[in-house]
Design a protein that fits this description.
The chain has about 220 residues and is mostly helical. It is about 75% helix and about 0% strand. It has two domains: about 130 residues, no CATH class; about 100 residues, no CATH class.
Amino acid sequence: MINIIKYEILKKKKAIMLILGIATAMEVFLLVNTTRGSFSYVGYLFLLALALFIAHIIGVITFYSRDLKSKEGYMIYMTPNSGFKITLAKSLAAILEGLGITALLGILLAVNVVLLGGFTDGTGTFSYNLGPVPIFYALGWLLYIISAIFASITVVRTIFNGIKFGGLITFLTFTSLTSFMGKFAYLPRSASYEFSDLYTGMSFYIIFVVLTFFTGWLIDNKMDF
């Protein structure tokens, strides 16, 4: 499992270096062109976070789809590892990459706060508290999205293999999966926000396991490499 995760991350090293280079260049530009005490960097960081998140999701889709189509990519599926184990490792690798992006944004925010001023707790020190429930919820949601992406691509590669408009079918499959699974994940807003978020977060993890098993089963039983 660990070796597969390492492999998944290392094969994206060029993309990771590119992201680091762009983020560093933007940070230098921001520091040079922003006066101390200005909060304009918050908007820049928000746009950077949005761009990196979109790039990460696109990367997850691109690399997984390529793995199922190219000889070099699907060689990993010829190993003794089960489809579930490989899919789980790919999901965890994507999460680690997402956490790396989050850590990068946190470092950039801290640098900007120190050099440009910003959020303080009244004593001149940076302070922000993010509770465990939002973190639990966010990680569950990301796993849920990644597993739905993997399942959608795998369905098209197996059940609908050879059919035209594969991209459109993948999108429709993803939309249908998330819409159907979402009915089990969200509570009515009559429940307390904290309980609702906790319940939804747990549902995300359960759906992630179900979709990962489903994707692994398709790979082991329906995939023709």
